[in-house]
Write a structure and sequence with these properties.
It is a single chain. The protein is of the alpha/beta class. The chain has 7 helices and 7 strands, in the order H-H-E-H-E-H-E-E-H-E-H-H-E-E.
Length: about 210
């Protein structure tokens, strides 16, 4: 995790200044997410980056605890929150496994462009399940590079030792959905935003009765 944090710290300032590449699919993701949010919801966003998504979704919820492993990303996110006068989002440098996160305390957990950057995706999904209230929602979007040419995995394998890419897990859509449904989640909604490379949007509900 330390190497990943350093990678994102170095990238943070450049990343924060880049406009969204695919505005149409980004807005589609936001719209599909908002449908499942309520102004009474207590939300956790993991892998929040520089906070853009959390700040845009803030008016739709009660509060958001947004976290990232990059301290510089969090600094930028906090600056944005002050500038935009958003008071119901808290930004912290943290991981999904921090002990301060109370089990069963969130109505929604969000993770956009997050899961494929983890080495232990099943463990992360189990942790999300723990943090959600019964019937709570896990809303995610995950790049599934294994649906594309194998060249992607080769490119990442070459770039990572040079410090030019983070760890990336090349998943198929079937693998991703199997991980989620095998962890007491029921998938409620899916989509591709965008379709290439396939970014799988998933809304999954924590089972009312554990299997």
């Amino acid at each position: 995790m330390r190497d990943s944090a350093k990678f994102w710290d170095k990238l943070a300032d450049k990343y924060s200044k880049k406009p969204v590449k695919d505005v149409e699919n980004y807005n589609k993701t936001l719209d599909c997410t908002r449908k499942h949010l309520s102004t009474s919801d207590n939300v956790l966003e993991v892998g929040c980056g520089t906070g853009t998504t959390a700040l845009l979704l803030a008016p739709s919820v009660k509060q958001i605890a947004a976290s990232d492993i990059s301290s510089r990303m969090i600094e930028i996110a906090r600056e944005k929150a002050v500038t935009q006068k958003v008071e119901n989002v808290r930004f912290d440098r943290a991981t999904l496994f921090d002990e301060d996160l109370e089990k069963g305390s969130f109505d929604i957990v969000m993770g956009f462009n997050f899961l494929h950057l983890l080495e232990d995706i099943p463990g992360a999904v189990r942790r999300v399940n723990e943090l959600l209230k019964v019937g709570g929602l896990f809303i995610s979007k995950t790049v599934c590079l294994a649906e594309q040419s194998r060249l992607w995995s080769l490119v990442v394998a070459v770039m990572r030792p040079l410090g030019l890419a983070p760890y990336v897990k090349c998943l198929t859509v079937a693998e991703l959905e199997d991980i989620i449904t095998s962890t007491d989640f029921e998938i409620m909604e899916t989509g591709f935003y965008p379709t290439s490379p396939p970014s799988r949007f998933i809304v999954a509900r924590k089972s009312w009765v554990p299997r």
